[in-house]
Amino acid sequence: MAAGEQQSRDYLQRHRIPELLHRLAALLLYHRPERPREFLIQALERVKAGRRAEGEYPYLMDEANLAAMFELLDVVGQGHITPAQYREALKTLGLSTEDLQFGDYGNITLDVFKEEVKKKMLESWAVY
Amino acid sequence: MDAPARPWPPPPPVGAYAEERELFRLLQNMLEELLIHKPDDPIQYMINHLKQNNDDAPRICVLGPPASGKTTAAMWLCKHLDAIRISQETLLFKEILTLTEEAKAYKERKQKIPNALWANLIQERLSNVDCIKQGWILEGFPENQEQAWMLQSSGIIPRHIVVLYAPDTVLIERNSGKRLDPFTEEVYHTTFDWPSDLLVQQRLVKPEDLSEQEMSKKLLEYHRNFPGIFQIYQKVLKLINADQPSVDVLSQVLTYVQTRHRSAAPFTPRILFCGPPGSGKSLQAALIAQKYGVVNICCGQLLKEAVADKTKLGELVKPYIDNGYPVPDNLVMKILAKRLNALDCVTNGWVLYGFPRDIEQGEQLQKSHIMPNRVFFFNLPCESIVERLSQRRIDPITGERYHTTFRPAPTPEIQARLRQNPKDEEENVEKRVEIYYRNVKELEDFYEDAFYINADQDPHVVFEIIESCIIKPLPCKKLKSL
User: Fold this and answer.
1) Considering only CA atoms, which of A58, A66, A65 is closest in space to residue A113?
2) Is B26 near chain A, with CB under 8 Å?
3) What long-range pairs does B420-428 form, CB within 8 A, spacing at least 24?
4) Helix or strand (DSSP H, E) at A75
5) Which label site among A18, B31, B66, B165 has the fewest CB atoms less than 10 Å from its CB?
């Protein structure tokens, strides 16, 4: 690999550009705005504001979405899901599954699920 | 989910949206810029980049030996594309850049200006806001491989390179008649390009160093340097013969700089063929479908299939077909929309022909959200159509088509059983062609981005032209109206 290519790869990884572009593309496709360019500028401005802790990050999922997701996972409606299911859900959302403090056993209720996912999302944006 | 908040009718599918808004290109350009400049704060950089909105700004180099017409071509492009022209003269005498003095000093001492200085001058000029916003046209730069490397490493990457060429003898002859307008910097020629304006005629001056020796020295140097440049830019470079009338040269240059290079964006072909009967629509559609795996849909065939399958709509269509009347548009539209929205068409793309035949049908197609992204009109003279169709024969057993002169049946057995479709008799053909041409004019206006194909050529030549139009992104039509 040429030195320049290695440098570029390092740069992308350091600033997590591929993940960022994935998120932006997902936001674009979900909202399908009339003017994508302006929409992206706004989204990036929000990331910047969020970095200074002055505003909200542009989330793809709101609370209602998370509740719906939980219901899908909790098929029989027992009010909690297993850590394995939780891990899969995080993967589906494109969030990191490292340093999970849940063991292989235990139950995750809706409130815990919401809180944890939100925390994870915040972490994933905070790196920018 | 927030289902009730969704607008109705449902928004076009994600893929079509992404394609229409060119999201791929938007994100790709952003990534490109990030990789070139590697800013420390990517978010802010991306915001600034998006605000510039200059993805379509021209970035062109016009190269060529002396007297090949670089200045004329570049100036003309500037007027059309509203971009900034940068040449040796403008850099040295028009601009006030920090490095200009240094460069001028070299010039006064009759020394060659070093490559690095040129590259820095260009870089400084191109980072000005007008070049970033409007785009730029570099004339006569880069001169050699070293300059090209330097420009590249400072992130200046032209999208289109136009190289004018002509035989040396022509260039030497042209050079001797070269005249300059000191006022507008335009270049004229005593015999080939003499200005009609008397005022301009009077103020023309003879440029210095017109001697043949000087010229051949410059030519030699150009020929020595060109292979290096060619090697670097061969993917975006186009050679254009400058030994033609200037209008032809300029139109070729403009067509080239408006093309876009192939992109890796996901693309579902939705192709529409319009053409008179016998223009080769079905053959071309079959070839395209075979090579690219898109769904081949002939409107007439589709209707007959619906009848044969005895579907509800088919039953409605049947009486019209049996009695030889045209099927009403709304019925055709329903059958067609159902087929084009089927999964295989949506995922693989389609090629449609035989519909729309007039502007109302085209509008209906648009109303039902069926948007072709490549439209082709086949053109050929009426005599060729008659020649092709009146001798068309069909094998009733295999359904294969033959032609008595161009494609005779392989065995006498088949030859004996060939039949002619009554539609293909000469007087009927002429009637059909006339109906086609009556309606096509409006349809051509309706599809602005359509391609026009001369169908009176070998089928494989036609196929190649169509293929290249499908593969490349649509040329950008943004032109300053003069």
Assistant:
1) A66
2) yes
3) B420/B392, B420/B393, B420/B394, B421/B392, B421/B394, B424/B389, B424/B390, B424/B392, B425/B390, B426/B386, B426/B390
4) none
5) A18
CB B265 within 8 A of CB B22: yes
Q: Which residues contact B182 (CB under 8 A, 6 or more apart)?
A: B203, B205
Q: What is the pLDDT of residues B428-463, one digit of tens each?
A: 888 888 888 888 888 888 988 889 999 988 999 999
Looking at beta carbons, which residues of chain A come within 8 Å of B14? 29, 32
Q: Which residues are paired to B311 by β-bridges?
A: none
Name the burial class of residue B215, with classes exposed (0-12), middle (13-18) and buried (19+) by CB atoms within 10 angstroms of its CB: buried
Beta strand spans in B123-171 (E): 136-139, 160-165
Mutate to test the interface with B, among A6, A9, A10, A11 (most CBs of B within 10 A): A11
**pTM metric for this prediction:** 0.75
CA dihedral B183, B185, B186, B188 (to 10 degrees): 80
Contact (CB<8Å) B50/A8: no
- What is the DSSP secondary-structure string of B352-364? EES---SHHHHHH
CB within 8 Å: A64 and B21: no
**Residues facing residue B138 across a β-bridge:** B61, B86
Angle at B462 between CA B461 and CA B468, to 5 degrees: 90
DSSP class of B348: H
* Partners of B163 in beta bridges: B63, B239
pLDDT higher than threshold 70 for residue A53: no
Instruction: Answer whether B1 sits within 8 Å of A68, measured CB to CB.
Output: yes
Residue B466, token pair as written in the block: 């169509």
How crowded is residue A15: how many other Cβ atoms within 10 Å of its Cβ?
Answer: 20
Q: Which residues, 6 or more positions from B160, have their beta carbon under 8 angstroms from its beta carbon?
A: B58, B59, B60, B61, B236, B238, B256, B257, B259
| DSSP states of B415-432 | HHH-B--GGGSHHHHHHH
Q: What are the E-state strand segments in B3-135?
A: 59-63, 84-86
| Average pLDDT of every residue of chain B | 85
Interface of A with B (CB under 8 A): 7-8, 11-12, 15, 17, 20-21, 24-25, 28-29, 32, 36-37, 40-41, 44-45, 47-48, 51, 64-65, 68, 128
**CA A94, A95, A101, A107: dihedral to nearest 10 degrees?**
-50
Let me know: does B62 contact B73? Beta carbons within 8 Å: yes
Q: What is the DSSP string of B20-34?
A: HTTHHHHHHHHHHHH
pLDDT value of residue B353: 92
Residues with Cβ < 8 Å from A95, sequence gap 6 or more? A117, A120, A121, A124
Q: How many CB atoms lie within 10 A of CB B94?
A: 12
Query: Pairing state of beta strands B374-379 and B451-454?
Result: parallel
- The ipTM is 0.72
d(CA A17, CA B37): 14
Contact B46 A64 (CB under 8 A): no
Are B150 and B229 in contact, with CB atoms under 8 Å apart? no
